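Weekly structure sync, notes
Attendees: PL, DS, HV (note-taker this week)

Item 1: NAD(P)H-binding
DS walked through the input record. Source organism listed as Lentzea waywayandensis. Sequence as pasted into the shared doc:
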Amino acid sequence: MKIVVFGASGMVGQGALRECLLDPAVDSVVTVGRSPSAVADPKLLHVVHADFADLSPVASDLADADACFYCMGVTSAGLTEAEYTPVTHDYAVEAARVVGGTYVYVSGEGADAESKTIWARVKGRTENELLALDRPVFVVRPGFIQPRHGITSRTRIYRYIYSWSSWLMPLLKKVAPKFVTSTDELGRAMVALAKGAQAAKVLRSDEINRLAG
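Item 1 (cont.): predicted structure, written out as tokens:
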């Protein structure tokens, strides 16, 4: 099975890549990024590409994929909607245009196309467009994500929050299972979807954790 991962250098993408490389059913992983990957593995091909609005030049490397994981994302803090939209919406739609197979879009708890909040509105609009495609598409909406296995967020404030709240995770998972998952559980759930697991089209953290086993 061949899986293409966008955003493999981010926290969620790192988790997805790790689980892809660990799963024996995945024999080929292609990551797409603006700089070479620090990860090396016999199963891994890293494609360096700068313009995510046009993936046509690297389409041959992405061909014949069984699944595509779109994990790219930026914080909306300090950004206008026009600035936030390309990574969250435009590049995701372009990835769906070029890469075949099962498509998994990493959204977030609270995404809603009618929201007054920029990130929720843009993610919700993107979800709706992708789910309308005539192909297998799943949206994962994690809430609080615990980074594991040395994985860290590239955003400083998120690193602080995750570090400070790590001791709360067991309690949070008990009292709010629909809002808490981890990088490895999220990654395993995405691989399960690529392998054909039966699930709702939109998955919250409790369903993500169930698929992860």
